[in-house]
Design brief:
The structure is a homodimer of 334-residue chains.
Chain A lengths: L6 H8 L3 H9 L6 H14 L5 H8 L4 E6 L5 H14 L5 E6 L4 H13 L4 E4 L9 H8 L3 E5 L9 E5 L1 H14 L5 E4 L6 H16 L9 E2 L5 H13 L4 E4 L2 H13 L9 E6 L12 E4 L2 H16 L8 E4 L2 E3 L7
Parallel strand pairs in A: 1-2, 1-3, 3-4, 4-5, 5-11, 6-7, 6-8, 8-9, 9-10
Antiparallel strand pairs in A: 10-12
The structure holds a DNA duplex (16 and 16 nucleotides).
DNA sequence: TTGTAAGCGTTATCAT
DNA sequence: ATGATAACGCTTACAA
């Protein structure tokens, strides 16, 4: 453990004052070119590295942005993180990644913690357990830039980046209708979350537009897992469904598994469309038609919204909608 | 943007001294129970949040750990991150995630940046472009705890967490031999990286132990992508291979695609085993036998190694080997 | 152009 | 048990 040199060390060796060294290094304020060169040379010589902690304390703000997600190792979220990182890091910001495991308790802990660390901003997709925007409100009221994404309380201060879930679900359902499926059910998520509510609405719209009945007995809540897909596929068949639009690809996978186990041919006898376009969607047999989320783009948009708000461009759009794209494959084609 | 209360504010309202408030809040040093209660009550009342930046400056160290990975949105790495986070966050540390895109330039930038931010430690899997441990050496010599994982320079200070790639590749190859494949090739990665060198060695060992020839003409470098798997499968067939052990699942996927396009039956005519146990391995048809990396466990071990070194338990193992597990499915069974 | 001095919020080390 | 003081390393007015 070796002592790290400070601007005071540089100043001493050069018979200058720390403030002069600071000005030379940061480029703020007038410094002679010669001294500037001397300072830089000495800095390299001593292996100087600015102490950001001290700098941040003095400036009252850090170059850190917190990103709060339910689970890091879900492809959607890690793609968002990756996208945000690719914008923020070159812009000189650090990204602190926190996961909440979809628990309100963890969410509270990590957000408090980020606040303690004086982050410049937060990019948050709140946990499913979080039903009130209370804590997030505190973020903005503390002067921290807030960007929500995917799951968002839209009436909060700051920006939010969401998928066009309505349009995505609409396109998926319409695709099935056009392929001749007559009784199309829906496996959804928690309908009190904006994401799933919008998908449900898009599904319903497509149905009604086509003159098909919207029937609650073939709409299933909390059904985005593989297990639930498998289980609810059985239920859907009892209700004479011939297709399902699933709000998640894993649910679609469960549906396909049940079909295989029961010799139901996909897409001939039964149609399925998923959401998220997980990696496996194109690899399974038949390949799964799915609505793509464009997670990376959401991360980029969220990061750019942060930068814009940070630099106080008042033109910041409050709500950024990232389009979804229906990736047509084999699971709902006939 | 509202002013955040400090310990000075609490002290003023209570006619105490900031130092007393600090002691009450941190629990370091003697404070009367009554004043302690008063301080806590007032802190809640004012919505006080400790300024970690100031605290860190004073203490000379932060509660932050940097994790440096090539790509965040690769399942292996996001699982490592998730594992590390699950240990570090409850222990009071923040995880700053940085990606290098496997570029030395980015790696240098992020490591410098973490150093500037006075992180307590770094958990690093170095980029493929990085062939010298120079910069990483600086990390330890700056008094920052260094834990390497997966790709590691083993002669550096600090701990490293690696998979038992030798044993994993050995088990995979042996499995194929036991299933009667006679001429087994290998699609590897960059053989100058420890990970791939070890897999090659394990493959070779299994071959030689079984009295099979190790033949360089059926060993392919830089071949862990899907494209390369497809391409080199053709080459391998020219060389009369009847099986391939792939250092990555995507390569194995490419192999299976070529087989399907050319009516080669897997596993009857040709055997394949992959590495990583990606999500799709169990979902494709036939399902892919693969060597599991246990990424989450690596993250946990890396984080625990950091904590141990931080608390100066001298018993810290320098090298932690996480076992790999052969997940037997259908792609090399007959 | 450079020097001086004060201060960011906290905590460690004294003294009381 | 509490108070006083200095210091962490840097930045920024202001003065020279």
């Amino acid at each position: 453990m070796q002592i790290r040199p400070t601007i005071v060390d540089i100043a001493r060796e050069l018979n200058l004052h720390p403030s002069t060294v600071s000005r030379a290094l940061t480029g703020q304020g007038r410094v002679g070119q010669e001294t500037k060169d001397l300072v830089f040379k000495k800095a390299v010589e001593l292996g100087y590295n600015c102490n950001q902690v001290a700098s941040s304390l003095r400036k009252g703000i850090t170059d850190t942005v917190g990103i709060v997600v339910p689970l890091i190792n879900r492809l959607f979220f890690s793609n968002v993180i990756s996208g945000a990182e690719s914008v923020l890091n070159p812009a000189g910001y650090n990204l602190v990644v926190c996961q909440t495991h979809d628990r309100k308790e963890d969410e509270t802990r990590v957000i408090r913690n980020l606040l303690r660390n004086q982050v410049a901003g937060m990019i948050v997709s709140h946990s499913l357990e979080t039903t009130s925007p209370e804590l997030l409100q505190r973020v903005s009221s503390n002067g921290v830039v807030l960007v929500q994404f995917d799951r968002a309380f839209e009436d909060l201060a700051g920006a939010c980046v969401v998928n066009d879930n309505f349009a995505g679900a609409y396109a998926a359902t319409k695709h099935m209708i056009e392929n001749g499926y007559k009784r199309i059910g829906h496996l959804g998520g928690e309908f009190n979350a904006n994401v799933y509510a919008d998908r449900l609405a898009g599904y319903r719209k497509a149905l009604e537009e086509a003159g098909l009945e919207f029937d609650e007995s073939i709409v299933f809540d909390h059904s985005i897992s593989r297990d639930k897909g498998f289980y609810n596929m059985a239920k859907a068949l009892e209700q004479k469904c011939d297709a399902l639009y699933c709000a998640g690809d894993y649910a679609a996978l469960g549906v396909m598994e049940y079909a295989r186990h029961n010799n139901i041919r996909i897409p001939e006898d039964f149609g399925v469309v998923g959401t998220a376009n997980e990696i496996f969607a194109e690899l399974i047999n038949p390949s799964l038609t799915s609505v793509e989320q464009n997670a990376r783009e959401m991360g980029i948009q969220a990061a750019e919204a942060f930068l814009a708000m940070r630099e106080e461009k008042v033109t910041t759009p409050r709500k950024i909608v990232v389009p979804m794209k229906l990736i047509v494959r084999g699971s709902a084609k006939r």
